């Protein structure tokens, strides 16, 4: 048993001592902060590890004066990206009909962009994930609540 496992067990015991309402509030706070970070990553067109998204195959400017909006502009809104906290976990997920589209882009699957259209292989663009900065934010929230 290394020192990290002992620390993890002690931290779980401290969190377990909190009331269910306090744990739920802590999870909700963590989920909201993580959602804000994920929204910023999507806005910057970056994967959680900091690598840039693969560009679109179709150019954003087809005709003079017409510019398509950036990728996933609506997807990052609070309407579609939900943050939930329960006694046991904090979750950031896509809600409703956009789950399928997010899954296709996240894993780089095949899909039809239009009904009756030709199937297209999409590039993998990681939309959600946790990086070191997110881990530090989680640690800070837990420490502030335990104090």
From TrEMBL:
Pfam families the UniProt entry points to: Phage_tail_S
Stretches the record annotates as Disordered: 36-64
InterPro entries registered for this protein in UniProt: Phage_virion_morphogenesis (IPR006522)
Biased composition (Basic residues): 54-64
Domain of life, source organism: Bacteria
Family annotation (NCBIfam families): tail_comp_S
UniProt-recorded name of the protein: Phage virion morphogenesis protein
Organism: Erwinia plantamica
